[in-house]
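Handover notes (outgoing to incoming on-call)

Open items:
1. ABC transporter substrate-binding protein: sequence verified, structure written out, both below. Nothing else pending on this one.
2. Nothing else urgent.
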Amino acid sequence: MKRSTLRKAVVLSAASAALLSAAACGSGFEEPNAAPSQAPASAGPADLQILIGSSGEAETKAVNDAAAAWATKTGNKATVTPAQDLAQQLGQAFAGDSPPDVFYVDASRFADYASVGALEPYGDKISNPTDFYQSLRDTFTYDGKYYCAPKDFSTLALVINSDLWAKAGLGDADVPTTWEQLTTVSEKLKAKDITPLALGDTRDRVGAFMVGAGGWILSPDGKTATADTPENLAALTYVKSLMQDKLAQTPKQLDSGWAGEAFGKGKAAMTVEGNWIKGALTNDFPDVKYSVHEMPAGPKGKGTLSFTNCWGISAKSKYKEQAVSFVEAMTTVDQQMAFAQAFGVMPSRQSAKDAYTAAFPADAPFVNGADYAHGPVNAPKMDSVLADFDTGIQQLGSTEPKALLERVQKNTTAALGN
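ABC transporter substrate-binding protein structure tokens:
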């Protein structure tokens, strides 16, 4: 989802294939669009199996502590297992008809799971479900059903190197709020021999410009391809102009593994990244001074992307009622703030916004992005389409945006079965 999006694509695709083949082979899943099979409820205390994709020791400890507190309070048991490779292990568990009761579901994988009946659609059973940001609720809605509670989220924002900014004679008034201003300030930086923008060359970064132009790859209901539109053409044409004029350069061009690394090395004055860049800069480039700002608005207003997981509950679980109780405990404002303090995530509940921004004021631009963010592509069987789109974006400097969008439109339409 973050730095390793491309590296994970092959593994995720394999896990998705295992999951979808499980449905086809009759291992307990229904065909797409069928109602999830119902497992009989188990009497007595639950022994919940929780599988998480942990970011590290801090997250593992925080989830373990929260699970232990819930177990003590309710008289149940909860065993938390940090996965070595979450997508792969989930794919294997589902294919083997032994899924965990509760597990992290990456937004980019959600539709694959929901489409084969693997998930219990419990979203509206959580207290105050509309308190979760609408963009996150939309991300975990499939065929009109709100499936699972968002665990936390990240958005993209514009990150500026304070020293390079000042070196170019720029101040607070020069922070760009529109695409036009982004171009202007980038030209000023380039004139001072400073690379203006380090930009990841995948849909997970360039897609923010598509949203700002009023476009996206799919219709809101996820059933129709909308790639080949004037809005998306405007976005890719703008990004291509930045690349051709050397106002934006890719991580590879800046001899870096990802844009945050290039930014940390001082190879660019700006980058477009999520709030995970905070930890990376603190750990790897602690002397870099920077500020965070909302994404410059495009022709149709502000646009950004959100990245999130939900607490998935298996449709095969014997402990669905207890699993919902567990998720309820994990998504209270107090617990989400405890997670934020422990390992730096942003709460998915709107009612936690004031507490979060008070504790982390520099992160306000990331949180504000939730109001206009777009989640990942919300349709199954899109892996190869999106991988091909990324390949096209990586060749954008020498590719006609219109031809690329026509190809994405054709491939998406085929993947959707239209």
